[in-house]
From TrEMBL, chain A:
SUPFAM superfamilies: Anticodon-binding domain of PheRS, Class II aaRS and biotin synthetases, Nucleic acid-binding proteins, PheT/TilS domain, Putative DNA-binding domain. This is Phenylalanine--tRNA ligase beta subunit. One of its GO terms (molecular function) is magnesium ion binding. It catalyses: tRNA(Phe) + L-phenylalanine + ATP = L-phenylalanyl-tRNA(Phe) + AMP + diphosphate + H(+). Its cofactor is Mg(2+). GO terms for biological process: phenylalanyl-tRNA aminoacylation. The gene is pheT. Belongs to the phenylalanyl-tRNA synthetase beta subunit family. Type 1 subfamily. It comes from Levilactobacillus suantsaii.
TrEMBL record, chain B:
The keyword Ligase applies. It comes from Levilactobacillus suantsaii. Mg(2+) binds at residue 259. This is Phenylalanine--tRNA ligase alpha subunit. GO terms for biological process: phenylalanyl-tRNA aminoacylation. It catalyses: tRNA(Phe) + L-phenylalanine + ATP = L-phenylalanyl-tRNA(Phe) + AMP + diphosphate + H(+). Tetramer of two alpha and two beta subunits. GO terms for molecular function: ATP binding; catalytic activity, acting on a protein; magnesium ion binding; phenylalanine-tRNA ligase activity; transferase activity; tRNA binding. Gene3D superfamilies: Bira Bifunctional Protein, Domain 2. It is found in: Cytoplasm.
């Protein structure tokens, strides 16, 4: 809500600038979005009196005007507005002036005719189009007849004001009005405030004889109407139009403007019906029926919902209650009798209706947050009074009341001890009661206990904590001390699982992978790829924002491939990423998926970029395997890590994919993605792994252990052999390790070769075997014996041909 | 010529030759020639037989002296030449030390992770636990137990990805408050926790909005926890993340799960509080929401609000990272451009 600084100053004696006031509001009540002075940046814009208008000889729409701008001689100004006419007072931007958007106006020639400035529309001096009165939207604005030529226009148009735009939180509906804001400011500045009290002069016969209300009290706890006859519809006086446009509302006519003005001042939305358009004298407030329709004031048609509250006459709905009036009973230039509705509608119903019909109006915004339930009559009275003053209306006697359920004021008990205990302050009882008093809350004290009666207008205050907030904010958050919690000590430490997750990240970063955080919401197709739980069902969002993020991921790999695709498209060719996060598996029939921590990696291009002293080496299976092995070593999972070829995963290269097992349990996979998948993602050859991190967390771990380093020398023997090409390293290693003897310390593969010089269908492998005795110097004989034994087993078990 | 004269001449000539030798080979040849078994000194010594017995020791001593002198000269010359050769070789081995070092494979933690870790470490040091909860939550924990019943208007403030009517992607990490409060045994001590994690909102991605982002929720519940403690805690957090120069101020706000509710601002990074376009001339930047836990939240979790109370706060690491590093587009955090990921390399 935009609130006028000048309007506030009519009621409070404030010795602060608008910006300081706004800051105070922000620090104490609600957020302030902006403070705008409409005349800021504008200059030399004055009233001009149009003395004569004649057509431009070389144009079909331009006029040459002689305008009195307060100088001795009239100014000649060329104007293209269709509504320019002799005798008007207009807005003139003089030569050298500055209008909206920092545009400078100069003396110029228009189609050969001198023009000393420009006659302006309101939009041209900074008014938003949607507040300009309809009559002037497509042309220049016409100022009142008594405006003095040559005088600046800013005061006339209410532009020498500051408009403070309040961003009111859902609990502070009371701040959506001048009066509510004044009451808060009165407390903030510790000043009394005298609000206006409406005075109605009723002349006509009783309303009760002219209107009967039938109200569903659950939908409208309060509902009342006043009736005003013999109105003359006209534009509102300037002061009223200024109030409205400075609040961001378009002036329409004296009746509609009064209802809006009263809403701005009291916070109570009103609706004015053209009484003569009612079908009969009975007005109903009820739920809409399923097949009912309504055309609202904005000329949109709505199919009504049984959850909508409507105002209806005997025949049909005439308004969508609390949201917008109906077109059929709208105020027109011919209206003479107006029924003013002042009511309280159920908040939830209004909120839903505004959402359902996508009609978020100033009225619905206020009803949703709750209006001042003690001020319903005041607002109706204020409107009636203004109808008399501004439209010559004759107020009919009394108010018809269809429902009148005012809530009881909240009465809250609170002790001073509690106040200081929760806020951490040392306030006195006097200080606290004074704050509550300035807010208009009635306080009775007995020793340290206060009994506080909260005015009905503050519908956000129900419990002691609510009062604590009032006390704290008015006292000032800046005055609160800054301390740290005391009390019993607690131990802060990560759980073993949290430590392992951190270690996982550090390990992979040390191994050269960058941490990625990708989107967990993806497409159904991607969710279903690289599955390690093949039976898992996808979990879909009910109302996704986009098809790209509609389903929960069931693997981390596709997210990383998306990342690689993003990099590839930007010519970043070397990408090494890992991601730690959750995947979401759902069993058929379950509503909610299980969440499993995973760790995955993806590398494309090269791990080490080409440099002046070494060539680029494209990442391969074994490089990534080295990373996975080193990582698993860091995790110290108890059990052998093995890799088994898996030609079955359809997204993976059938010959370059391995399941990863720990102690025989599969915990993930690694390898090269299938070329068709790479193509679909528009990326190059990419190596990936995906491990069940939760499984790694849950598995037993080895502790670090000290092993004596032998003082005795080690002896090495190299062995090279030819084997069938389908014999694996694991098979050879198994034989060597099983048959290597007691002194075999380690076996290291140092060469693999197939091709020239090796018979077809065969490959050559070479290993270094290291022997060591921890307690004595080994003798060659012992080593020779052990080596011979292994050699024989390799020949017999694997058909190896030793070279 | 007497033997002595011969030796003297030999020495003179020998020393001159050694001095003139320019490489090790020449030095060696001189050594073999002068000091070898067939060399002139050996020959002179052989001639001693012809001398008188009284002269022999004198000439013998002199001959030894000459031999020692020549031996030393050879050794010195050799050392000199060896040093020169070594220096020449080292000179040839000189490198251009300004050539770049050989690249090593090095990965970086994600900038958001860095901020989360920093927050975790700070609060661990103050005795907080770190707890994480499910990302797919029940409406009950995400909203209802946070004092947001089904028809609450504040639900409109955070658009939610629902999966079913009761199951949703968590919009905040606050559900861990409820889950932990339900279980915590206060006889064992106060509850001090933070809960970091991913959250989801039904938003269209643009430079300032992301349907996925991070949150760290904090909660302290004990018998005497004050709003001043909240203010002090947030101040410590601001100092840790941004530096001791940064100040914190609180402003009233509204959250259904806290009362009083506040927004916390910190001194603007850009202008240090003087006022600039980044902070809209206020000198302050809004960074987080906080407040004293609403009694209803405690009650619903089975904690007696007349005995226990405390504060909660919610921090957005994405926003912190954007502010701290001037990142102008939140999507950078989730698109994982390597050129972005590898910018935040400072450790410690």
């Amino acid at each position: 809500m935009k609130i006028s600084y000048n309007w506030i100053k009519n009621y409070l004696d404030l010795d602060v600038s608008a910006t300081d006031l706004a800051e105070k509001i922000e620090r104490t009540s609600v957020e302030v979005d902006s403070v705008v002075q409409p005349s800021a940046g504008l200059k030399k814009i004055v009233v001009g009196h149009v003395l004569s208008v004649k057509a431009h000889p070389d144009s079909d729409h331009l006029h040459i005007c002689q305008v009195d701008v307060g100088d001795e001689e009239p100014s000649q100004i060329v104007c293209g507005a269709p509504n320019i006419a002799e005798g008007q007072n207009v807005i003139v931007a003089l030569p050298g002036s500055r209008i909206a958007d920092n545009v400078k106006i100069k003396r110029s020639k228009m189609r050969g005719v001198e023009s000393a400035g420009m006659i302006c529309a309101l939009q041209e001096i900074g008014f938003p189009e949607d507040v300009v009165p309809k009559a002037y939207v497509d042309g220049i604005y016409v100022l009142p007849a008594d405006a003095q030529p040559g005088a600046p226009v800013f005061d006339l148009l209410g532009m020498n004001d500051s408009l403070i735009d309040l961003d009111v939180t859902p609990n502070r509906g009371d701040m959506l009005s001048l009066n509510g804001t004044l009451r808060d400011l009165a407390a903030i500045y510790d000043q009394p405030v005298q609000l206006d009290v409406p005075e109605v002069k009723a002349e006509g016969p009783a309303v009760a004889d002219q209107l009967t209300l039938h109200v569903d009290e659950a939908l409208a706890p309060q509902y009342r109407m006043r009736l005003v006859r013999n109105l003359k519809i006209a534009p509102s006086p300037m002061w009223l139009q200024i109030r409205l446009w400075n609040a961001g509302m378009r002036p329409i006519n004296n009746v509609v403007d009064v209802t809006n003005y009263v809403m701005l001042k009291y916070g109570q939305p009103l609706h004015a019906f053209d009484y003569d358009k009612f079908d009969g004298q009975d007005v109903y407030v009820r739920a809409a029926q399923a097949d009912e329709k309504l055309t609202t004031l904005d000329e949109n048609d709505h199919d009504l919902d049984p959850q909508d509250i409507v105002i209806a006459d005997a025949k049909a709905p005439i308004a969508l209650a609390g949201v917008m009036g109906g077109l059929s009973t709208a105020i027109t230039d011919q209206t003479t009798t107006v029924a003013i509705e002042s009511a309280v509608f159920d908040r939830t119903h209004i909120r839903k209706a505004a959402q359902r019909h996508n009609l978020h109006t100033d009225a619905s915004q206020r009803f949703e947050r709750g209006v001042n339930q003690a001020g319903v009559q005041d607002a109706a009275d204020a409107a009636a009074q203004l109808f008399t003053e501004l439209a010559g209306g004759e107020v009919q006697a009394g108010t018809v009341v269809g429902s009148n359920n005012q809530p009881d004021p909240a009465i809250i008990k609170l002790t001073l001890t509690r106040v200081n205990q929760v806020l951490g302050t040392l306030l006195s009882l006097d200080q606290v009661t004074h704050i509550l008093d300035t807010l208009g809350f009635a306080v009775e004290t007995a020793d340290d206990e206060m009994t506080v009666t909260v005015p009905i207008r503050r519908n956000d205050i129900h419990i002691p904590a609510d009062l604590l907030e009032e006390i704290a904010r008015i006292y000032g958050y800046d005055k609160l001390p800054a301390t740290l919690p005391t009390g019993r000590m607690t131990q802060g430490r990560l759980t073993p699982a949290q430590r392992l997750v951190r270690a996982t990240r550090h390990s992979l970063e040390g191994l050269g992978l960058n941490q990625a955080i990708s989107y967990a919401l993806t497409t159904e197709d991607k969710a279903k790829m690289f599955l390690t739980h093949p039976d898992s069902q996808v979990t879909k969002l009910a109302w996704p924002m986009s098809v790209d993020h509609a389903v929960l991921r069931m693997n981390l790999v596709t997210g990383l491939l998306d990342d690689i695709a993003y990099n590839t498209a930007r010519k970043v060719k070397d990408v090494a990423l890992y991601e730690q996060g959750r995947v979401f598996y759902r069993e058929d029939g379950q509503e909610r998926p299980a969440e499993e921590e995973h760790i995955a990696g993806a590398v494309t291009g090269t791990l080490l970029p080409k440099a002046w002293n070494h060539p680029a080496q494209p990442v391969d299976f074994y490089q990534l395997k080295g990373i996975v092995e080193a990582y698993l070593q860091d995790m110290a999972v108890n059990g052998d890590v093995t890799f088994e070829a898996n030609p079955q995963m359809k997204e993976m290269h059938p010959g370059r994919t391995a399941d990863i097992l720990i102690h025989g349990h599969k915990i993930g996979f690694m390898g090269q993605i299938h070329p068709t998948v790479a193509k679909a993602f528009k990326i190059g050859a990419t190596m990936v792994f995906d491990l069940n991190l939760q499984a790694i967390i849950d598995m037993p771990k080895r502790a670090n252990q000290y092993d004596v380093i032998s003082r005795y020398p080690a002896i090495t023997r190299d062995i090279a052999m030819l084997v069938d090409e389908n014999v694996t390293n694991d098979q050879i290693m198994a034989v060597i390790n099983r048959r290597g003897g007691a002194y075999l310390q380690s076996t290291k593969l140092f060469d693999v070769y197939a091709g020239d010089n090796v018979p077809a269908g065969k490959k050559s492998l070479a290993y270094t075997l290291t022997y060591q005795d921890k307690t004595a110097t080994l003798v060659d004989d012992a080593v020779n014996q052990a080596f011979e034994k292994v050699t024989k087993r390799l020949e017999s078990d694997l058909g190896a041909e030793i070279r | 010529m007497s033997l002595k004269d011969k030796l003297t001449a030999l020495r003179q000539q020998g020393l001159a030759d050694i001095e003139q030798a320019t490489d090790l080979k020449a030095v060696n040849e001189i050594r073999v020639h002068l000091l070898g078994k067939k060399g002139p000194i050996t020959e002179v010594l052989r001639g001693m037989r012809d001398l008188e017995a009284s002269e022999r020791p004198v000439v013998g001593a002199f001959a030894n002296e000459v031999r020692d002198d020549l031996t030393t000269a050879v050794a010195n010359r050799r050392e000199t030449l060896e040093n020169a050769a070594l220096n020449a070789r080292l000179a040839k081995e000189a490198l251009d030390v300004t050539l770049p070092g050989t690249p090593v494979a090095k990965g970086e933690p994600h900038v958001i992770q860095q901020i989360i870790d920093q927050i975790e470490d700070l609060f661990l040091g103050m005795g907080y636990q770190v707890l994480s909860g499910p990302e797919v939550e029940e409406d009950k924990y995400n909203f209802e137990m946070m004092n947001l019943p089904k028809d609450h208007p504040a639900r409109d403030m955070q658009d939610t990805f629902y999966i079913t009517k009761e199951i949703l992607m968590r919009t905040q990490t606050s559900p861990m408050q409820a889950r932990t409060l339900e279980k915590h045994d206060f006889s064992q001590g106060p509850l001090k926790m933070i809960s970091p994690g991913v959250v989801y909102r039904r938003d269209t991605d643009d430079p300032t909005h992301s349907h996925q982002f991070h949150q760290v929720e904090g909660l302290v519940i004990d018998k005497h926890v004050t709003m001043a403690d909240l203010k002090g805690t947030l101040q410590v957090l601001a100092h840790e993340l941004f530096g001791d120069k940064f100040d914190v101020r609180l402003r009233p706000s509204y959250f259904p799960f806290t009362e009083p509710s506040v927004e916390a601002d910190i001194t603007c990074f850009n202008c240090g509080g003087k006022g600039c376009s980044v902070c809209k001339q206020t000198g302050w930047i809004e960074v987080l929401g906080a407040g004293m836990v609403h009694p209803n939240v405690l009650k619903m979790a089975g904690v007696d609000p007349d005995v226990y109370g405390g504060f909660a706060f919610g921090v957005g690491p994405d926003r912190f990272a954007m502010l701290k590093y001037g990142v102008d587009d939140i999507r950078n955090f989730y698109l994982n451009d390597v050129r972005f990921l590898t910018q935040f390399t400072k450790k410690g």
